[in-house]
Amino acid sequence: MTVPPSSMGATSMRTHLCGALRSGDIGAAVTVCGWVAKRREHGEHLAFIDLRDHTGIVQCVIPGTVDVRSEYVIAVHGVVRARPDGTVNPDLPTGEVEIGDCTVTLLNSAEPPPFAVDDRVEVDEVIRLRHRYVDLRRPRMQANLRIRAKVNHALRTAMDRQGFVEVETPLLWAPTPEGAREFTVPSRLHPGSCYVLPQSPQLAKQLLMVAGVDRYYQIARCLRDEDLRADRQFEFSQLDVEASFVSQEDVFEFVSEAVLDAAEAVTGDRPGAVPRMIWAEAIDRYGTDKPDIRFGMELIDLSTVFEGTAVKAFGAPCVKAIVLEGGATLTRSKLDGLTDRAKGLGAKGLAWFRVTEPEAADGAGATGSGLALDSPLDRFLSDPERSGLLAATGAGAGDLILVVADEYRTACTVLGQLRVDVGGRPVGEGPYCYLWVVDFPMFDGVDEAGHPIAAHHPFTMPHPDDLDRLESEPAAVRSQAYDLVLNGWELGSGSVRIHRADIQSRVFAVLGVGEEEAMSRFGFLLGAFRFGAPPHAGFAVGIDRLTAIFAGEGSIREVIAFPKTQSGSDPMTGAPKPLATGLLGELGLQLIPPRD
Ligand code: ASP
Fold first, then answer.
1. Less packed terminus of the chain by CB within 10 Å, N or C?
2. Looking at the DSSP assignment, which residues form a beta bridge with residue 219?
3. Cα(427)–Cα(545) distance, rounded to whole angstroms?
4. What's the CA dihedral at 475, 478, 480, 485 to 10 degrees?
5. Is 483 in the pocket of ligand 1 (CB under 6 A)?
6. Rounded to the nearest 10 degrees, how much is the dihedral formed by the CA atoms of 18, 24, 30, 34?
7. Would you say the CB of residue 19 lies under 6 angstroms from ligand 1?
8. Whose CA is nearest to atom 4 of ligand 1?
9. CATH class of 140-272+541-585
10. How many angstroms is it from 457 CA to the middle of ligand 1?
């Protein structure tokens, strides 16, 4: 964490910040305020207090005794001096100095904290969240909150610089089209009716384009009633962006500028221009639409090697592989674990081949390349298959080849996940590799009624080259939707929107959304579009995820001041809580027993 100059914290109660004092401050008479991190007494004539504020810890030396305990809030007055020889603490940023001849003023006492305010102490998450105000005192959490503030500031500044106007949109709103389950808010003044908390400001920002705002942004809170995960909370923040008279190229430019600025603001380094990848290529090479391009291990197509094979396990439409360098040392039980994982992900099985020097592989056939394969499947391979496998994968002695034979998408997805499982690195580990994934399919799967499901949302503009296949071949239609990926996490999505009523009706028809349903759900938007909708496009960047990556955290809960637990509760406030009976009546609600 970068520490502000010590004088920046000056208030009417203190002159300096604890963690900011350095040898340049030697000789200064200072007053610092904070929490007692530690107290040590050396007889009756000398006491030491480690005093903590948000910038760190400084050692205070008191000539006498002092009656304070951990987490008491105190002000300390004294003179900064060099620590005596031999007592310099190189692990502490303030370790060259201490405050001597201190007098202590008690500002408030404190009960013993529920856990030590120390990054090195592991504490159960529920206990941390119950006492989040203590948890947030820890240096790591203080740093995370500040990284988040830096990210927000950099994003805001970048959007402002590019002529975007910050507009706040309502939290009490009507359903939006992202497809997630929404939180509803019963209305007291309209019993039986509800507001919806917005999944995103999607429709509001499109209305702002009709309203002539031209370039809108907002650091928007979005709410989705979905199961929580390491990278998902009920409420999250996004940099929400929309602009008129733009193409997707313009959006890439605006948003790249903002997220590169954010990286630079936090890390001091500006990553290079953000590369692009077509969605179909991402699936083919990485088995995912959010490829982590920090490392290789790309998927290798073996379909021609095993064309017409006699190996039953490889008789599938698609055979693909990944190579784990040095992976031949993986034990049998690890390999069994990987096989179970592959099956859990939907594959029929997983074939593995350890690549060895010929003498090491028991009875294994030499391949002509001076290498041999060690695998239960090896004896079923023909010689050309054996050498074809090695040639196609380029694997060398000591490597491990993992092969999945299945339908194309299954083979890609399973290997894509195994690639991350066995070769991946923590998401927050640099370098920071942004990637635009473009040309997403317009639809993804079908619903119970057999209608295609919008891959992004129903206001996404189809790819101009695919418009005439919209009705005849919807599965082959690409959209003008795009994602931004960072180190294998989806950072956000966006699209060019449909601004023409004729195209919108066609898309609704393909989706099976009748005119009446469209009008009842989105009538206000469609109505507005009749009054002059400019061509427009937009994007949203997930700020929690962006911050977590820069903070080196694997969970967004670590960068949110007051997150919910995995089960959606808040151990500190007790939320969610049963509604008081009186309130139910006021809202015109009656509780029925929960469904199983
Ligand atoms: N509303 C979309 C989302 O929240 C983003 C966008 O299309 O601008 O994912």
1. C
2. 239
3. 10
4. 90
5. no
6. 0
7. no
8. 200
9. alpha beta
10. 8
pTM for this predicted structure: 0.92
CA-based end-to-end distance of the chain: 48
Tally of helices (H runs) and strands (E runs) in the chain: 13, 22
Point out the ligand 1 atom lying closest to the alpha carbon of residue 492: 9
User: DSSP letters along 482-508, please?
Assistant: EEEEETTEEEEEEEEBP--HHHHHHHH
Ligand 1 pocket residue status of 522, Cβ below 6 Å: no
487, β-bridge pairs: none
Ligand 1, residues 493, 499, 543: which to mutate, most atoms within 8 A of Cβ?
Answer: 493
- The helix or strand, by DSSP H or E, that contains position 445, with its residue range, turns out to be strand 443-446
Q: Do domains 140-272+541-585 and 431-533 have the same CATH topology?
A: yes
CA of 79 to the centre of ligand 1 (A): 55
Sequence letter at residue 427: V
**What CATH topology corresponds to 5-108?**
OB fold (Dihydrolipoamide Acetyltransferase, E2P) (2.40.50)
CA of 485 to the centre of ligand 1 (A): 14
With a 6 Å cutoff on the Cβ, whether 218 touches ligand 1 is: no
**% the chain with pLDDT above 90:** 84
Rounded Cα distance, 420 and 375, in Å: 23
256 has pLDDT over 90: yes
DSSP 65: -
pLDDT single digits (tens) 523-554: 899 999 999 999 999 999 999 999 999 999 99
Helix, strand, or coil (residue 257): helix
The torsion region of residue 522 among left (phi > 0), alpha (psi -120 to 50) and beta comes to: alpha
494 lines ligand 1 (CB under 6 A): yes
Cβ of 538 below 6 Å from ligand 1: yes
For residues 406 and 348, is the Cβ–Cβ distance under 8 A?
A: yes
CA of 226 to the centre of ligand 1 (A): 16
Provide the H-helix boundaries in 273-407.
Answer: 279-286, 332-344, 383-393
Structural domain boundaries of the chain? 5-108, 140-272+541-585, 295-423, 431-533
Domain 431-533 top-level CATH class: alpha beta
**pLDDT bracket for residue 591 (50, 70, 90):** confident
